Every structure is written in C-alpha cells, then in structure tokens.
Automatic annotation (TrEMBL):
Pfam families to which the protein is assigned, alphabetical: HTH_1, LysR_substrate
Name assigned to this protein: Transcriptional regulator
Top-rank lineage group of the source organism: Bacteria
Alphabetical list of PANTHER family matching this protein: HTH-TYPE TRANSCRIPTIONAL REGULATOR, TRANSCRIPTIONAL REGULATORY PROTEIN
InterPro entries: LysR-type_TF_proteobact-type (IPR058163), LysR_HTH_N (IPR000847), LysR_subst-bd (IPR005119), WH-like_DNA-bd_sf (IPR036388), WH_DNA-bd_sf (IPR036390)
Keywords, in A-Z order: DNA-binding, Transcription, Transcription regulation
PROSITE patterns per UniProt: HTH_LYSR
Domain HTH lysR-type residues, every copy: 4-61
Stated family: Belongs to the LysR transcriptional regulatory family.
C-alpha cells in the first residue's frame, strides 16, 4: 500500500465534517474538482471507498468510519507540531491571525491599524465572526472573545481577562420621539441568534410587542434598529456610540461577563503574539469606560 498524503487526509476530513464536496471546497479555499481528485487519490492509495454519495450529501462508508479515527490523530499531531514550531519563532515578522466579534472589530480597527503601522513586517489577518475560532486547530493565533463564565473556557487555552462588558436595550431616536407623542403600532423585538430584548428590560417604559424581527447577523440587527423597526439588546459600546440610537428609557445597562484575550499552547510564546497581546490589552483597558457602559453621552 502506498503511503498516505497528509494533504489528502485534510480533504477527507473536510468532506466528512461538511457533509459535501462543496462545503469542503469552501472551507479549504479550493475548487470542487480538487476535492474530488484528492478523495479519489486517497481511496486509490487505501484500496477502499471512504465515501458513499447520496442525495443528501456524502456519507462515510464503514471503511471511511475506521479511517476517521486515524485521520484525526494525524491532524492533532500536525497541529501540535505547528504550534510548537510557531511558539519558537521569535521574529517580529510573519503571519498573525486574529479573531474578534464583528462589532468589536469595528471598535478596534483604529488600534489594529496602529499596530500594523508599528510592526510593518507582521502580516495581519482578521477573522471577524461570532463563531469561536478553533485555536487548537490553528484557525487563529489570538482570539478576543466575550466570555460570560470563565469556567467555560477550555483548559488548554491561556487567557488574559480584559474589561467587563455591558449590554443595554436600544431604540432609534426617531422611534422614541414618535412613541413619546403617542404613535401607535408595535415596537418589535429585534432578535439575533434567539437573543433579543432581555427579560430585565420589562421594567422599562417601552415594551416590545408584536412578532419578532429576526436578524441573521449583527449588521442586519443594527440596520433594523436604526430603521425604527423596534428595540434590541446591543453592547453599550455599539449603542452609545451610534448617533441614531438611544437607550430605551427606564432600562439601565447590565454587566454580564468580560472580554478575554485567548491563545493556545506554545503559540503565546511567539514574539509577534506577545507583542499583539501586550498592545491590545492596553488599548482595551483604555476603552474600559465605553465597554462598561459608563461613558454614555448625555441626552
């Protein structure tokens, strides 16, 4: 039997996890034909069929199920090797991958630009997503994440706690003005990921009524509340900084968790990672009043 190519294993795992060649191609940044060729190459070397194509997608065969365990062991070994070698890199150059939530990416962009100017030899890649990047699999080198309970952090991650983060309930200034002069009609709860107006907002002067408006992401959520569709929960640093929005009257913001700067394993020892963590932790500390909702403009 010919030796197995690690690159073929990556494609095999991507199809198995995504359930389709298309999903694997998008994840790996290649075309459909490349994925098919890699899978066929692996099956030829193993002498077995690892996937069965069905109308619902690609399903592992019995042989493919056996291959998964060994493929994941190869993947884990590869990631450990990469992390160890990466951790010994003490040069202030090379790629630095950072993941931040969408709203926070906007807030930190001036700081990220400043860091890039100070360190022109560091190639910066920003992954702005609400998903938690897999640091163990080296999808990112540093993750800045909102964490409600530090006990939920995986034990293999190293974390530096930043400022606490406050959330509040916001409406558009135009909607509030109409409501104050007696406008009728529902003020919808704007919901994202099943999170909309919290229960503790019920003590406020305005009540969310009517069918919810479901936003698929943070950008649509913000656009909807600006448009006056209703009220929603936002981080205070987003709502307070937006001139079109205001806090819902009678609803005080609440602290609920903190920002954490996370790394994994040997990665934290790399010079460019240490430079970034030192830099961004100071910048976040300087923005603590805004993040904690204590610097709202006067009405």
């Amino acid at each position: 039997m010919a030796s197995i190519d690690w690159d073929d294993v990556r494609y095999f795992l991507a199809v198995g996890r995504g359930g389709s060649v298309r999903a694997a191609a998008e994840r790996l940044g290649v075309n459909h034909a490349t994925v098919l060729r890699r899978i066929a190459q692996m099956e030829q070397r193993l002498g077995v069929q690892v996937f069965e194509k069905r109308p619902s997608g690609y399903r592992l065969t019995a042989a493919g199920e056996e291959v998964v365990e060994f493929a994941e062991q190869m993947e884990a070994s590869s990631h450990r090797l990469e992390a160890r070698v990466f951790g010994r890199d003490q040069s202030a150059r090379g790629l630095l991958r950072i993941t931040v939530p969408p709203f926070l990416a906007d807030l930190l962009m001036p700081d990220l630009a400043d860091f890039a100017q100070r360190h022109p030899d560091i190639e910066i890649e920003i992954l702005s997503t609400g998903e938690v990047a897999n640091l163990t699999n080296r999808e990112a080198d540093v993750a800045i994440r909102f964490v409600v309970d530090r006990k939920t952090l995986p034990l293999n991650l190293h974390g530096l706690m930043g400022p606490q983060l406050a959330g509040g309930v916001y409406v558009s200034r135009d909607l509030l003005a109409r409501w104050r002069v007696g406008a009728t009609g529902p003020i919808r709860p704007i919901v994202i990921n099943d999170r909309g107006v919290p229960d503790w907002a019920s003590a406020g002067e305005i009540k969310a009524t009517g069918a919810p408006f479901r936003a698929p992401d943070a950008e649509v959520q913000l656009a909807a509340v600006r448009q006056g569709l209703g009220m929603t929960r936002l981080p205070c640093f987003v709502g307070d900084a937006d001139p079109m929005l205001t806090r819902a009257p009678g609803v005080a913001p609440r602290l609920n968790g903190a920002l954490w700067i996370l790394t994994q394993g040997e990665t934290r020892n790399t010079k460019r990672v240490r430079l970034f963590i030192d830099f961004v932790s100071q910048r976040l500390a300087g923005r603590a009043p805004l993040l904690m909702g204590s610097s709202a403009p006067d009405e």
